[in-house]
Amino acid sequence: MDDPRAYAVKSESGGNGPVALWMHREHRARDNHALLFAQSLAERRKVPLVVLYGLAPAFLEAATRQFDFLLRGLRETSAILESKRIPFLMRLGSPEEVVPEMVRELKVSALVMDFDVLRLKRGWMKTVADSVHGEVWEVDSRNTVPCRVASDKREYAARTIRPKIHKRLSEFLVEPPELPEHPFSLKKRPETASFEEAFQYVRQAPALPETNFVPGEEAAAERLEAFIGGELDSYGKGRNVPTNPGVSRLSPYLHFGQISALRVLWEVTARGRDRDSVAAYVEQLVVRRELSDNFCFHDPDYDNPGCFADWAVGTLEDHLADDRPYVYSLEQLEKAATHDDLWNAAQLEMVRTGHMHNYMRMYWAKKILEWTPHYAEAMERAIYLNDRYQLDGRDSNGYTGVAWSIGGVHDRGWTERPIFGKIRYMSYNGAKSKFKIREYIDAQTRPALL
Questions:
Q1: What pLDDT shows up at residue 109?
Q2: 3-class state of residue 127 by DSSP
Q3: Rounded distance, CA 198 to CA 208, Å?
Q4: Is 341 in contact with 441 (CB distance < 8 Å)?
Q5: Structure-model confidence comparison of residues 448 and 163, the more confident one
Q6: Could you tell me whether strands 49-55 and 88-92 are parallel, antiparallel, or unpaired per DSSP bridges?
Q7: CATH for 1-141, options being 3.40.630.30, 3.40.50.300, 3.40.50.620, 3.40.50.11540
Q8: With contact defined as beta carbons under 8 Å apart, do 48 and 154 qualify?
Q9: Considering the domain 143-175+216-298 in this protein, what is its CATH number?
Q10: Confidence of residue 447 (pLDDT cuts 50, 70, 90)
């Protein structure tokens, strides 16, 4: 198949059985290149198409908040797929075990997988690919310019990947076709789990209340429409101001793959009125987001200081013995019990809503470095808190953001100062000069919101 988004993992002959898509990152029926690719394989072979899902009992630090968002969205997607004569088949258990089981029972001739960059997921993908017969493909529906196409190495910074992405952007900025009804039906379904069973299954995860983000493809499309019709026009001037409503609030939907970044890009560039705001948003949605996938794909140490440049490790080591006026435990951080009311407000926003403004994410992570005895422990704490509470945690964007904040990844050396060395510094007074911090603090700490 001549598709630059598709990567051939295995080329064995697999007989005449159905084609299967193992859905594990792009949880949607619309604008899903992996699904469309799998359907094209099935149509050429005149066989049924099925979507397989393995629901792991735990995923990194995910809590009930994230599992509920995932499953409620998947329930909507499964209904869309079923209406197109594409069965959605789910089993409960580690995907590396239950997906090969379904592949064998169905006698699948070709398996298509979502592209992913996380170490845990790539381990699952390798295990699944090694344990099944027939063709295995990996299709990148996450990035507008596929990660493997954009660059074959870890990029140094946004400035090095930006021209590579823009050089090929027009080639991939093509509106995906609608998913047609599949012409060949599956005659016999294997035993699978219901969504009621799935919701009970994930109750073993750490308990966190749901947020006010409504999950699913429809809600994601509505949020995109609201953003284009409202906040987008002020994005260029207000994206770094936490009290400014001009942000997309699409990150949970993009993280769970409930909306395609390509669809967002297509609509924003076609309909956005303020061109400076459109350009600023494209920089974040395409360049910065795809730089994160590039980083995690090419550096398996993305979640530990092994990914830091030599200059960053050297400067952090040089300042390990510096006096730290404030040192907090993980428990104190988790409870937002620091002396810094701005940081506490950001932590409370994340715990309560599953969301934190991007500017505050940077400030939040850098203060964890400042208040923790060792930079390796600071990175571990920031990742734990981000992955536990953020709806869009456990994502290449989050790991890259923490690595940038604490280890200078994709950044350069700055003026040397205590504790941080040459790592970029952010301060309370600096935040105060940029926006009305009291307005932000009051909004997050008002008793009615707690």
A1: 96
A2: helix
A3: 17
A4: yes
A5: 163
A6: parallel
A7: 3.40.50.620
A8: no
A9: 1.25.40.80
A10: low
- What's 305-449's CATH class? mainly alpha
Opening angle at CA 410, ends 406 and 416, nearest 5: 55
Residue that is written with structure tokens 């074959």 in the block: 152
For residue 1, name the pLDDT band (cuts at 50, 70, 90).
low
If one compares 210 and 93, the residue with the highest pLDDT of the two is 93
One-letter amino acid at 152 equals D
Residue range 271-303, pLDDT digits in tens: 999 999 999 999 999 999 999 999 999 999 999
Interatomic CA distance for residues 218 and 79, integer angstroms? 12
Contact call for residues 14 and 133 (beta carbons, < 8 A): yes
Amino acid at 437: I
Which pTM was predicted? Answer: 0.95
Q: Extract the tokens encoding 288.
A: 């910065």
DSSP string for residues in 269-307? HHH-S-HHHHHHHHIIIIIIHHHHHHHHHH-TTTTSGGG
Q: Look up residue 259 and give its two tokens.
A: 């909306």
DSSP string, 351-375: HHHS---HHHHHHHHHHHHHTSSSH
For the chain, which residues make up each domain, given as ranges?
1-141, 143-175+216-298, 305-449
**Residue 350: both structure tokens together:** 């994340």
What pLDDT score was predicted for residue 450?
A: 38
* Nearest in space to 296 (alpha carbons), one of 151, 130, 420: 151
How high does pLDDT run on average in the chain?
95
Three-class DSSP category at 19:
strand
Asked whether 111 and 254 are in contact (CB, 8 A), the reply is no
Cα distance between residue 218 and residue 241, in whole Å: 28
Separation CA 266–CA 380 (nearest Å): 37
Q: Which two tokens stand for residue 447?
A: 């008793």
